[in-house]
From TrEMBL:
InterPro entries: EF-Tu_GTPase, EFTu-like_2, GTPBP1-like, P-loop_NTPase, T_Tr_GTP-bd_dom, Transl_B-barrel_sf, Transl_elong_EF1A/Init_IF2_C. Residues 37-50 have a biased composition (Basic residues). Signal peptide: none annotated. PANTHER family: ELONGATION FACTOR TU-RELATED, GTP-BINDING PROTEIN 2. Coiled coil: none annotated. Residues 1-63 are annotated as: Disordered. The keyword GTP-binding applies. GO terms for molecular function: GTP binding; GTPase activity; translation elongation factor activity. It comes from the Eukaryota. This is GTP binding protein 2. Gene3D superfamilies: P-loop containing nucleotide triphosphate hydrolases, Translation factors. Residues 163-391 form the Tr-type G domain.
Length: 597
């Protein structure tokens, strides 16, 4: 999309700097429209950066000038194009009406705009989608007749459970209001100021008693094809939400207290969130684990946006002070983020589209879970935000052999053993034979998939990138543990006790050397490892880089070269990636299976 469109539909608030109102190849960058020849407006326009480089993930989608009374041939061509756009956007597409292919803001008369929207309705009906006009703007054009351009969101009606699913990890310091915010969003009822909204999210008695999350819980918020919110206020069960939703936001509620940090890191590394939401309390500002959680998300390259909660408890000046404090932190050399304060619906749409295109844009919302102030802006943001990966990348992952990461293990009455996790690659169906491991001796056991559930509702086919629970029938639970993988029998998994990683030591009180023990997080693997060697150096200090050889102390693990490594021990922290594996041998069936054969 041309920068001229971006300027017309750009964010007009005075907060933040840099790439606000950016151009988008996919035709998605919109925001607040200017009034004609206003001095204030010219200043707003001057804030926009023209040097923004959008993501290359999305193909170029030219805007539509007008769609007035197309011929049958043209109508069929447009329907085919809409199908392709929906497929590329994984069920969503944005159309610009009244904009030429070269980005020229021509605009349409009122009559032509009505006719174009009517044609879009017909096209959407033909391909099984619904349309919503996000906004219309008048443009300055050499004509006596007022002319407009419009931005229209097309969303496919869900079929066969193929809704768009985005995962959002919820981070923030203890008592910042994370669980309460999720309770309000997913239950559809405001909080009473004493934590009533969060009670449905807690999994343990001690969490209810203390009001502090200690485990990972999941909550869902749906949007239907008409952009309406679908949550527990309208639907009784998760299954009903899944049936009526075209787009699903799965919130991963993580712990804020420092003593549960390992659980929070596990949630970030294992569940592969698309985005992270950092919740900051307006009255305390950046405190406790806030900086640490921000650093973790950035180290793992998870795009992050910020929600300032509890604004009903503070004066406007206190909220603004917290916003300025966050802006200072985000603009520091270590972060290099562009803060963008969201104060209107137009800002929310702009933020959603630019946030997905540029990792530097960081939207900031200020809201209250008690009064409901600005809560709708956050819902608009979740409704509009597009997926980071396009359909081509997902197709490539689906062509690979099946690999399912085991994150949770349950025993369900009358069902048997159930595992929860994410399908990293391939496709999984009921009745598929897989092997699970590695065991302490590095072996794999055969098993068969029973039933599959996604978001607590039955599912026939699981595709790469989707999270689900799989029933394994009477498979012995004692043979399973978190960190295992279930893979296709044709795969030759690399199992290792030792691996090399190129690391950066983020912080260490003294020196990091051979013999030091750390807790290593690699995807869904979480285990203590010993430093066997530091290549090229005797020891490491804070900020230094080196290739290090690690050895697991309990059991071998399934790893991949290139996987992100995050390790910690007390105040010691470091990040890096796996560069080399030392496999213990090829896949062997367990002795028990040989005896059964």
């Amino acid at each position: 999309m041309d920068a001229r469109v971006s300027d017309l539909f750009g964010s007009g608030n005075g907060h933040g700097s840099g790439s606000q109102g950016v151009a988008s190849k996919s035709g998605n960058g919109f925001g607040v429209a200017p009034k004609k020849s206003s001095a204030k407006n010219k200043k707003a326009k001057a804030r926009f950066s023209r040097n923004f480089k959008p993501s290359n993930n999305t193909p170029y989608l030219p805007p539509e000038l007008k769609l007035v009374n197309p011929t049958q041939y043209r109508f069929e061509h447009l329907a085919t194009q809409m199908k392709w756009r929906l497929q590329e956007g994984r069920g969503e597409a944005v159309y610009q009406i009244g904009v030429e292919d070269n980005g020229m803001l021509v605009g349409l008369s009122e009559e032509d705009m009505r006719a174009s929207l009517k044609t879009l309705h017909r096209l959407a009906e033909k391909v099984g989608a619904d349309i919503t006009v996000l906004r219309e703007r008048e443009v300055d054009y050499d004509s006596d007749v007022p002319r407009k351009i419009a931005e229209v969101l097309i969303r496919k009606v869900p079929d066969d459970q193929q809704f768009l699913d985005l995962r959002v990890a919820v981070l923030g310091n203890v008592d910042s209001g994370k669980s309460t915010l999720l309770g309000v969003l997913t239950q559809g009822e405001l909080d009473n100021g004493r934590g009533r909204a969060r009670l449905n999210l807690f999994r343990h008695l001690h969490e209810i008693q203390t009001g502090r999350t200690s485990s990972i819980s999941f909550e869902i918020l749906g949007f239907n094809s008409k952009e309406e919110v679908v949550n527990y206020s309208e639907s009784r069960t998760a299954e009903e939400i899944c049936e009526s939703a075209s787009k699903m936001i799965t919130f991963i509620d993580l712990a804020g207290h420092h003593k549960y940090l390992k659980t929070t890191i596990f949630g970030l590394t294992s569940y592969c969130p698309d985005f992270a939401m950092l919740v900051v309390s307006a009255n305390t500002g950046i405190a406790g684990t806030t900086r640490e959680h921000l650093g973790l998300a950035m180290a793992l390259k998870v795009p992050i946006f910020i929600v300032i909660s509890k604004v009903d408890l503070c004066t406007r000046a206190t909220v603004e002070r917290t916003v300025r404090q966050l802006e200072r932190v985000l603009k520091q050399p270590g972060c290099n983020k562009v803060p963008m304060v969201v104060s209107s619906t137009d800002d929310a749409v702009t933020a959603a589209q630019q946030f997905a295109q540029s990792p530097n844009i960081t939207p900031i919302f200020t809201l209250s879970s008690v009064s409901g102030e600005s809560l709708d802006l956050l819902k608009v943001f979740f409704n509009i935000i597009p997926p980071l990966s396009n359909s081509k990348e997902q197709e490539e992952l689906m062509q690979q052999l099946t690999e399912f990461q085991v994150d949770e293990i349950y025993t369900v009455p009358e069902v048997g053993t159930v595992v929860g996790g994410t399908l990293y690659s391939g496709i999984c169906r009921e009745g598929d034979p897989l092997v699970v491991g590695p065991t302490d001796s590095g072996q794999f056991h055969k098993l068969t998939i029973g039933s599959i559930q996604r978001n607590r509702s039955a599912c026939r086919v699981l595709r790469a990138g989707q999270a689900a629970t799989l029933a394994l029938g009477n498979f012995d639970r004692s043979l399973l543990r978190k960190g295992m993988v279930m893979v296709s029998p044709e795969m030759d998994p690399t199992i290792c006790w030792m691996f090399e990683a190129e690391i950066v030591l983020l912080f260490h009180a003294k020196t990091f050397h051979k013999g030091f023990q750390v807790t290593v997080h690699i995807g869904n693997v979480r285990q203590t490892a010993t430093v066997e060697a530091v290549y090229g150096k005797e020891e490491l200090r804070t900020g230094e880089k080196a290739v290090v050889l690690f050895r697991f102390i309990k059991h071998p693990e399934y790893l991949k070269v290139g996987a992100k490594v995050l390790f910690r021990q007390g105040v010691t922290k470091g990040i890096g990636h796996v560069t080399k594996l030392q496999p213990i041998g090829q896949y062997q069936p367990s002795q028990r299976e040989d005896e059964e054969a």
